[in-house]
Amino acid sequence: MNSKKALSMIGIATKAGKVVTGEFSTEKAVKEGNACIVIIATDASDNTKKKFNNMCNYYHVTKKEFATKDSLGMACGKEFRASLAVTDLGLAKEIEKQIDSCDHMEVQ
Length: 108
Prior knowledge:
- There is one protein chain.
- By secondary structure, the protein is an alpha+beta fold.
- The chain has helices at about 1-15, 25-30, 45-60, 70-75, 90-105, and strands at about 20, 35-40, 60-65, 85.
- The protein has a 4-stranded mixed β-sheet with strand order 1-4-2-3, with helices on both faces.
- Strand 2 (about 35-40), helix 3 and strand 3 (about 60-65) form a beta-alpha-beta unit.
- Helix 1 packs across helix 4, helix 1 (about 1-15) runs antiparallel to helix 5 (about 90-105) and helix 2 (about 25-30) packs parallel to helix 3 (about 45-60).
- It is globular, with a radius of gyration of 12 Å.
- The model has no long low-confidence stretch (mean pLDDT about 90).
């Protein structure tokens, strides 16, 4: 249930113009200090996960693995997306809260 809320919040952030998608745009947002949270698809390649994990650690940006490439793409109104960055702090915190509550629900 909460995964739908998180994907819906990503859609809202996209409509507000506060999401950049795709590997190049996400990397640029992180390096320019505009990314508040980076979301990587769970089915992204190991190389992509490692790249963004290292980059987010270096630039001190929150990173979450969440949903599939297809789900992330649909939430943004695009084709599949392996990575995206949310550039608004308030939206990023709400999306992170929803993703964390998904993880908590799945663990139980």
